[in-house]
Amino acid sequence: MKRSFEVVMGKLWLVGIPIIILAASCSPAAQPPTSSPFPAHPSSTETPNPTIPLTLTETPTSEPTITLTSTYETAQRTPVEQIPYSLDCKPAGTLIHCHDTLLKMSFDYAPGMWKVIQPKLEWGYGAGYVYGYFPKDHPDWPIAAGISRDYSAGREGTDFDFGAGNTSEETVGEQCEGYDVCFEVKPGVVMIVSPPIGQFCQIGKTVINWPPYILVHIQLPENKVINGFVFSKYFTTEQATTKLNELVGLAAGDIFPHCTDTTIPTYKAVMADLVAGKNSGFMDNTSLDNFRNILLLAESIEFDK
Questions:
Q1: To 10 degrees, the CA torsion angle through 116, 117, 118, 119?
Q2: Domain limits at 81?
């Protein structure tokens, strides 16, 4: 399913609040790449701030029975409090190794990416579930999240909505449609660089969610609660971001790109160098390392057998 620019970038209207991220002023370290998919209401299932090793388990411990439906009137959902979930993270050499009992998978990440992360599970507004990871030091900014296929949001779409409908069963080609950099890391795991520069450079498009950021799609079609999960992270340094801003014609205060005939092919060449591990004139070593760390996370994902 091809996601339009307006839908994929519909993050501006979460809970009715317009947000414009200006390329010249945004700091990748201080802004999440995409808005939270969680409903804007207090959760009765918020977990306490953890410390490594992190083990947060809900009760009871028996496997929940989930009835997934698609309409508000007929939705019969197991209460969130009755769905067991835990994220156990502990040091493993130079990395942090985590295992998630709800998603039935494990992964590794470099400590420099995030410090301590904690999980949260909530209902949708009318149907389904949303589940995500939050850094301890920024508990309102999800670094990863996913939803059930019947999730009802009551808002515009976000990049974290992978899993809705049949999206978790899409082929690699369907997931990659329209993107300049997108590839299968392993079965069930796809890595994407967003936004597509061709759509970003359309005349009159407001600058949102720039500089580029990475999405890691994880397909969970057989999971009883969450059917797709996405990690999302910026990777460019301030220096690299400044050069990319110059490439797309953004100056301080601009909200529209000023692309030229050479912008798109140049950008695609920069992304090709990035995937190849080359230090181009736009990317620096730190940006390359950030990219490799996200790729390492994607490569480390293992599904429970």
A1: -170
A2: 5-303
User: In 10 A of CB 42, how many CB atoms?
Assistant: 7
Structure tokens at 166: 């049949």
- Number of domains observed in the structure of the chain: 1
Dihedral sign (CA 120, 123, 129, 130): negative
SS3 82: helix
* Count of all residues that appear for the chain in the document: 305
**Over residues 261-278, mean pLDDT:** 88
Which residue from 19, 5, 15, 3 is spatially nearest to 156, judged by alpha carbons?
15
Instruction: Say if CB 211 and CB 244 are below 8 A apart.
Output: yes
| Residue whose token pair is 């409090």 | 81
Whole-model pTM: value is 0.75
Q: pLDDT higher for 175 or 4? A: 175
- What is the rounded CA–CA span in Å between residue 144 and residue 134? 7
